[in-house]
Amino acid sequence: MVVVGYEDFLCPYCRRLRQVMRRLRESLGDRLIYVYREFPNERANPGAELAARAAEAAALQGRFFEMHDRIFDGNLPIRRPELLDFARRIGLDMERFERDMDSEPVRKRVERDIREGRENGVTGTPTLFVDGLRYDGAWDHGSMLEALERPVAARVHRTARVFASLPTSAGLVLLLTAVLALVCANTPAASLYEHIMAARVGIGPVGSLLSLTTREWISEGLLSLFFLIVGLEIRREMTVGALASRRAALLPIVAAVGGVVTPALIYLSLNRGPTSRGWAIPTATDIAFALALLAVLGSRVPVALRVFVAALAVVDDVLSVLTLAIFFPASFAPVYAVPVLVCLGVLFALNRTRVYATWPYVFVSLALWFFLHALGVHAALTGVLLAAFVPARPAPSAAPLLAQAATALAALDHAEAEARREHRDEAKLESQPVWEWAARNLSAAADRLLSPAERIERAVAPWSTYVVLPVFAFSATGIRLAVHLASPNAQHIVEGAIMGLVIGKPLGILVASGLAIAAGLAVAPEGVTLRQFVGAACLCGVGDTMALLMADRAFSPEEASAAKLGVLVGSVLAALVGLVVLHQRAASTPAEAQSAPMPAPRQTS
Question: Of 20, 106, 183, 564, whose CA is between 20 and 30 Å from 308?
Answer without folding.
Answer: 564
